[in-house]
Amino acid sequence: MCGILAVFGCVDNSPVKRARIIELSRRLRHRGPDWSGLHCYQDCYLAHQRLAIVDPASGDQPLYNEDKTVVVTVNGEIYNHKELREKLKTHDFRTGSDCEVIAHLYEEYGEDFVDMLDGMFSFVLLDTRDKSFIAARDAIGITPLYMGWGHDGSIWFASEMKSLSDDCERFISFLPGHIYSSKHGGLKRWYNPPWYSEQIPSTEYDPIVLREAFEKAVIKRLMTDVPFGVLLSGGLDSSLVAAVASRYLANSEGACQWGSQLHTFCIGLKGSPDLRAAREVADYLGTRHHEFYFTVQEGLDALEEVIYHIETYDVTTIRASTPMFLMSRKIKSLGVKMVLSGEGSDEIFGGYLYFHKAPNKEEFHTETCRKVKALHLYDCLRANKSTSAWGLEARVPFLDKEFLDTAMSIDPEWKMVRPDLGRIEKWILRNAFDVEEKPYLPKVPDPILTNAKFIYPENTPSTKEGYYYRTIFEKFFPKNAARSTVPGGPSVACSTAKALEWDVSWSKNPDPSGRAALGVHEAAYEDTVDPTKDNLMNGSPLKLKDGTLEKTAEVV
How far apart are CA 271 and CA 277, in angstroms? Predict the structure, then answer.
C-alpha cells in the first residue's frame, strides 16, 4: 500500500505551503517507506509515499502521461494493467508501473474509464490543461480514502485522516465505488453491479463456476515483483486462499523470482487453537510456515498505536486489528512486502453465526448486501491499515469484482443454513472446493468418533448424534447389564443389519431413522456428508462443549 495526499485550490501557494504539504504527507510514510514524490502546479499539490510492489526500479509517483499535462497519484494495484495497455498502443509509457495506465486511460476516454480498472485503488488525477481534477475509490473500499475541505476553501484528499485532521475544517470517508469530478461537483457512483440494488438473484448454484471464479481471483493477485505470502489462520477462508495460491504459484511470474514454495504466516497466543489449525493446513499444503506469538500484555501495550493507525474506536475492529498489527511487523522484518488475506467471505456467504436465524432467503440476501457495502468501515479498514502501518500490502481475493458478481448472483436459498440438508454456514463455498481428486484442503478425522471405539467398544456409536445419546445413557445406566439390553448394529430407515446389504449406497449413510432411505426418498439425502468425518469443507455439524453437543461449524 502507498500513501497519497492531494490538495487543490490553496490560497497560499508559497514555499511555506509546499513545506506544509510535505510535512503532512510524511504522516503517511509508514504506508510507503520506499520513496516520496510531490508534484506542484500553481495552487495544486499531489504527494505520494510509495510502497514499491510492481516495477520497484522505475515506478515512482506521481505518474504522468506523455507530455506531463496529466498527473496522477495512486494507492493500489491494477491487476489488468497489461490488458489495458493493449488498448493503449498509441500511448508511450514511461514506467512498468501497473498504475500508469490511469493517466493514459483518462487521456483516451476522459472521466468514464474507472469501471475498466480491475483492482484495488484510490487515486487523484489532475489535468493541468484546464486545472480540472478527479478522485476515485475502488468498488468495495479495499483501499482507504478521505476527502476534506480546508479553511481557505481548498479541497483535500488523503489515504488516512491523520493527514487531514489539522488542516481541514471538516472531512469525510470517501464512498467506495464513487468518483468525484471538479467539473460536475459532488460524488457519483461508478460501480453499479446487479447485486447493489439488493434484488433477489435467481442463478442456480454451480460449484465449478464458483470455484473457477475464486481461483482466477487469487491467481491475478500473485502479480508482484517483491517477496509475498498468505495470512493463514487455519479457518476456511484463509485456508482456501493459501490452497489456491500454493497450487498455482509455480506458474506465476512471482515464482520466477521468489521460488514456488508459498510462505504462510499466523499469529496467536501460545497454545491457541488457531496456531494449531494453521499449522495443520500449512503441513498439508507444504508451505513454508511462519508462526508468531504475542502475549496479552503485548496486545494491551500496542493498543494506542493500533488505534492511531486504524483510525477507529469500533471495539470489534480494534480487537481484530491488534494481532494483525503485531503480525504485520513480524512479517515485514522477514523482507516480505505483500500478503494475501481472506477478508470478505463471511459477508458474501453469510458466514456469521447470526445468519442461522435468517427468516427467509430474501432477508438473508439483503443482509449480505448490507454487510458487503459496509466492509470499508470494518474489515477492509482493518486489513489495510493494520498491515500498512508497517509498510505491508494486503490483497483480498474474495472481494474481486468478478468473483463478487458470481457469488452475489447465486440464489440465496443455496447460502442459507439448512441442517436438514447437511448445510452449515458457507456450505456452497465449502462444497465448491470439496473435490475427491487433488483435494484443496485436508480432511481431518473427528477426534470424538475416532476414540469412540475405545470408550464404547460394545455397539460403538458411528455418528455424533449417537455418541451424544450414548453419553446421556451411560450417565444414568453405567452398568454392563444395562448396555446389553439395547440392540446394536447398522441400520437404515429402521432396517435390520442384513437388509442393509440390499443397496450398497445405504452403507455410506446408515441413518437409522424411519423417515427415508437413500435411493427411495432421495430428497432427504441430498448433499449428505460423511457423519464420521469432520473437515474444512463440510465443517462439523456437532461438537462437544461443556459435556453437551451443539450445532456449529468447525471453522468459520
Answer: 11
Contacts for 443-450: CB closer than 8 Å, 24+ residues apart: 443/533, 443/535, 443/536, 443/537, 444/280, 444/533, 444/534, 444/535, 444/536, 445/532, 445/533, 445/534, 446/532, 446/533, 446/534, 446/540, 448/543, 448/544, 449/532
Torsion of Cα atoms, 324 then 330 then 331 then 332, to 10°: 110
Whole-prediction pTM value?
Answer: 0.81
Phi-psi category of residue 120: left, alpha or beta, with phi > 0 → left and psi -120 to 50 → alpha: beta
Active-site choice (2, 99, 266, 369): 2
Inter-residue contact 405 to 214 (CB < 8 Å)? no
Cα separation, 236 vs 124, in Å, equals 36
Beta bridge partners of residue 263, listed in sequence order: 288
Q: Residues 507, 495, 451, CA angle at the centre, nearest 5°?
A: 50
- Residue holding cell 435390520? 496
Average pLDDT, integer, range 325-343: 97
Distances (CA, A) of 439 to 6, 281, 430: 48, 12, 12
- In this predicted structure, the answer to whether residue 388 has a pLDDT above a threshold of 70 is yes
Q: Please check whether residue 67 is in contact with residue 106, taking contact to mean a CB–CB distance below 8 angstroms.
A: no
Half-sphere exposure of 429 (CA within 13 A, CB side): 34
Query: pLDDT digit string (tens) for 161-219?
Result: 999 999 999 999 999 999 999 999 889 999 999 999 999 999 999 999 999 999 999 99
Spatial CA neighbour of 78 closest among 58, 60, 64, 96: 96
From first CA to last CA, the distance across the chain in angstroms is 27
Known catalytic membership, residue 369: no
Q: Grid coordinates in use for 3?
A: 500513501
Beta strands in 130-204 (DSSP E): 132-137, 146-150, 155-158, 168-173, 178-181, 187-189
Single-letter residue type at 392: L
Three-state SS at 235 = coil
CA torsion sign for 369, 373, 377, 379 is positive
Instruction: Please give the Cα distance from 457 to 447 (Å, whole number).
Output: 16
Cell matching residue 14? 508559497
